[in-house]
Each structure stands twice: as C-alpha cells, then as structure tokens.
Amino acid sequence: MRSVILTLTPVLLSATLSAQGVFSNKTQVILEKVIQDYPNHFYNIKGDLISQALQTSRYKSTLQIPGTESTVITVSGGSQSSGWSCVVLETKNFAEARERFSTIYGQLSNSIITAGGQKTYILSGQYEAPAEERKATCIVFTLLPGVGDLKKLKVQLALRQVQNGWKIELSVEDKEEAQGGITAN
Q1: Which of 17, 34, 84, 133 has its CA 20 to 30 A from that of 151?
Q2: Packing angle between helix 26-37 and helix 94-108, nearest 10 degrees?
Q3: Residues of the chain with pLDDT > 90: what percent?
Q4: How many CB atoms lie within 10 A of CB 181?
C-alpha cells in the first residue's frame, strides 16, 4: 500500500498543479508577452492610435486579456517612458470586484515569466485584501531577480473606487514613472 501511495503522489501533485493553471493561465500568458515587449516600449504590441496630446500618445494594444474592457499603451515622447494598462473590470458590486481582484492576484503571483534571451523571472507581490471602506488597494509586483532591462519594470494590480462603483486595473510601467500612480489608503 505504501508503494502505491509513493507512486501516485507525484502523479496527483502534477495533476493538482495543472488544474490550478499556475503557469498556463491566459492572464499570465498575455502579461508575459507584454513584459517581453517592455524593453521595446511596447512597439510590437501597439495597435491603432487613440489620441495624441503634446508629447503623449495613446494606442490600443494588440494584446488583451480575455474578458477585459479596454487595453491601452501610453508613450511619452520627452522621457521615452511607456506603459501598458488594462481595465479588467468595472462594476458597482464590491464583492464581485474583490473576488476578481483576488483571482487575478492568484493567477499572477509567483508566475514564472520568460523574457528576452530566455531569462526567467518570478513575478512577486504581497497580497493585500481589499476593504470596501478604503478607496483603493494596490499590489505592486516585481520581477525577481531584478536585473537587466527589466530592473525598472513594475507590474501593478489595483482596485479602486470610481464614481459609479469599482474598477480593477492591471498595468506594466517604469517604476520611476509610476511613483505618482495609484496607492493604497
């Protein structure tokens, strides 16, 4: 009996990890492609121009997470900074927003990201449970180890209150440029 258990344990563990989809979910796959194009200022995933003002241009992204509402690439000409931003959900229901936020975190946390040159990184961020009385909750993910071109990269998952409810946004941007972004209260 013991030998049967020892034989089946690796098989069951493998099946459990596959069922969780930790390394094969669509959110992680799209995000990996976005991160791979980060050193190119998202040039390879830029779609049609949406708007242009002064030194900032906004484009549709050719990569979208399934079921998302909008995905935009913003490029600032003067500082050569760029960002990819995706509105995952807008809802009036906080419980729905909290659940989706938690699901996305689970899909991304500790994901293995393969970047240019076949370097691998782990996407790491500390979970913070959203609370309805706070106006925003933000999780900042970093790539470990933080070296090379991707050292400046920041992935942010944010849930914030908007006029008519709650909005979840996932973004990839420069750490320096993102300092004025969404912060948790």
Answers
A1: 17
A2: 60
A3: 42
A4: 16
Q: How confident is the model at residue 118 (pLDDT cuts 50, 70, 90)?
A: low
Higher pLDDT among residues 103 and 114, named by residue? 103
Q: What does the block give as tokens for 137?
A: 């909750």
Q: How far apart (Å, rounded) are the C-alpha atoms in residues 123 and 32?
A: 10
CB atoms under 10 Å from CB of 182, counted, come to: 19
- The predicted structure's pLDDT at residue 90: 93
Q: At 133, is the secondary structure helix, strand, or coil? A: coil
Residues whose CB falls within 8 Å of the CB of residue 13, separated by 6 or more in sequence, listed in order: none
Residue 75 inside a domain? The answer is yes
In a domain, residue 8? The reply is no
Quote the domain boundaries for residue 83: 21-180
Strands of the chain (E only): list them: 46-53, 56-61, 70-76, 81-91, 112-114, 120-124, 136-144, 153-162, 165-174
- CATH number, domain containing residue 79: 3.40.1000
- Asked if residue 5 belongs to a domain, the reply is no
**Helix residue ranges per DSSP H, the chain:** 2-20, 26-37, 94-108
Residue 49 belongs to some domain of the structure: yes
Q: Which residue has the higher pLDDT, 121 or 137?
A: 137
Residue with tokens 């989706």: 100
Alpha carbons within 13 A on the beta-carbon side of 135: 5
Q: 1 vs 8, 9, 14, 15, 68, CA distance in Å?
A: 11, 12, 20, 21, 49
